[in-house]
Amino acid sequence: MRHAARALLLLLAVCMLPLAAGAEPLSEGLQRCAREADEHLRLKCFDDLAASLPRRKRDEFGMTPAIAERKDPSAPKAPLINPEVLDAKIAGLRQGSHGEYTFSLDNGQVWVEQEFRPGQRFSVGETVQIRHGFLSSLWLSASEHRMTRVKRIS
């Protein structure tokens, strides 16, 4: 019985090894591969790292600072980047003939409001976020629970 328990423990440790390897941050993995002197081993290292990207993306989806800290309390507190959200400031604002806004953002992008919503006001210098919505829609939101559907025009 003790032998079977040892074998099961060893099998469990071997199965968990790939999961532990995925815990390494991507930037550290890239640096580790770049330091490899042998070109064949370096290429294999980069190939293995590239193969882990879909799993990494899946693991990071919905990650919050609180969850990241619970997952690894010793990890450095780096800001999380959410590829599903664009943070920007309104650099220019123009209102069309039907009341719809055209937003020029500080990153150079220009977005137009898809449907005018009376009573919603935006101002230059205001911080906004653009998020993906249902059926490929994009939503621009500002403080005070203001949100409007937008389309990028440049």
Summary tags:
38% helix, alpha+beta, single chain, 154 residues, 6-stranded antiparallel barrel
Topology:
Layout: H1 2-21, H2 26-35, H3 39-51, H4 53-60, H5 65-71, E1 85-95, E2 101-105, E3 110-113, E4 127-132, E5 138-142, E6 146-152
Antiparallel strand pairs: 1-2, 1-4, 2-3, 3-6, 4-5, 5-6
Helix pairs in contact: 2-3
What does this structure look like?
This protein has 154 residues and is α+β, with helices and mostly antiparallel strands. Helix content is 38%, strand content 25%. The protein is built from 5 helices and 6 strands. The chain has a 6-stranded antiparallel β-barrel with strand order 1-2-3-6-5-4. A hairpin with a 4-residue loop joins strand 2 and strand 3. Helix 2 runs antiparallel to helix 3. It is elongated. About 10% of the residues have low confidence.
Summarize the structure.
The chain is α+β, with helices and mostly antiparallel strands.
Number of helices: 5
Rg, please?
Answer: 23 Å
Sheet bearing the most strands, described? 6 strands, antiparallel, barrel
- H/E topology pattern: HHHHHEEEEEE
Distance between the termini: 68 Å
Report the structural category: alpha+beta
Task: Give the strand order of the largest sheet, numbering strands 1, 2, ... along the chain.
Answer: 1-2-3-6-5-4
Summed over residues and divided by their number, the pLDDT gives a mean of: 78
Helical proportion?
25-40%
Strand portion, in percent?
A: 15-25%
C-alpha geometry: elongated
Q: List low-pLDDT spans.
A: 7-22
Tell me the number of strands: 6
